[in-house]
Amino acid sequence: MLAQDIMIKQVYKVKESDTVRRVIERFIEHGISGLPVVNDRNEIVGYVSDGDVMRYIGKHEDRYVDFFLCIHPDPRG
Questions:
Q1: Is residue 1 part of a domain?
Q2: At 35, which CATH number?
Q3: Is the predicted pLDDT of residue 70 greater than 80, yes or no?
């Protein structure tokens, strides 16, 4: 079995200038857990995963909890 046999063929990406909120929105929109990051020339310069986001939130929880909770507010109110 090769990587091409199991890879996702539709590639979504984010720009290095996109916000973390945009990254999370892309994760949710497409049911994915990681994205390549591209520069202005559309060259891959990195990769961001849901684990990267969670580690960042964990280190800065006091400043970002409200921000991240607003992405998908609790439908029960």
A1: no
A2: 3.10.580.10
A3: no
Work out how many domains the chain is built from and give that number: 1
What is the DSSP annotation of the chain? --HHHHS-SS---EETTS-HHHHHHHHHHHT-SEEEEE-TTS-EEEEEEHHHHHHHHHHSHHHHHHHHHTTS--TT-
Domain presence at residue 55: yes
Give the pLDDT confidence of 4-30 residue by residue, as tens digits: 999 888 999 999 999 888 999 999 999
Instruction: Please state at what angle helix 20-30 crosses helix 61-69, rounded to 10 degrees.
Output: 40
- Is 76 domain-assigned? no
pLDDT digits (tens, 9 = 90+) for 55-66: 887 777 666 556
pLDDT above 60 (res 68): no
**Structural domain of 27:** 12-69
